[in-house]
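Our working data are protein records whose layout never changes between entries. An example says more than a description, so a record of this kind follows.
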Amino acid sequence: MASIVASGWLIHGVEQANGGLATATQRSALGDYFGAVSAVFSGLALLLLVTTLLFQQRELQLQRRELALQREELVASRAELRRSAAADLRSLHVQLTQMQMDDPSLTEVWNDFPGLPHAVIKQYLFANLTYSHFVLTFQWGERSEEDLIREARDIMRSPAFRSYWAASRSLKASLPPDSDEGRMFRLFDRALAESGGGDPAGPG
């Protein structure tokens, strides 16, 4: 009862403060109108917030894609640099071999086949260049294994290359079997057997 009495007194006070019931009712309706407008603006603000979050999410996705593309480009650049460095090293190897082939005195500095005539050493050096070319071609994936085995069979028909292979086989057999050089060694050994050059499992 006290609450009802107090509420009535407060309502009456509000009416008197606003100049009567009609004025208070009008002002109350105006307040409700602004409340509705405020609700509309609140809804618009929420919609703008959701839209902003969606745009930010899309922007983050685009940034992730861009970073992924940059990583791919970096990996490709590193691979290209490695290929370029390998090509430079290959060129240096060819130059050193050419110097050995042209000057017999240089074989006293670096010679994997001591005691052999220089003419035979030149053949072995050229055979090693040819074999290294096969390894490089295999590493770069420019030819399939079937193409390489077919060309290796042709080379293995050469007595000079088979002599080089016999002289260097034990060293090549010690290479890691899962390396490119080790896989190429097994490929040439298979070509030797298929060309009628002997048992590849035999002593080198």
About this structure: The two ends are 116 Å apart (CA to CA).
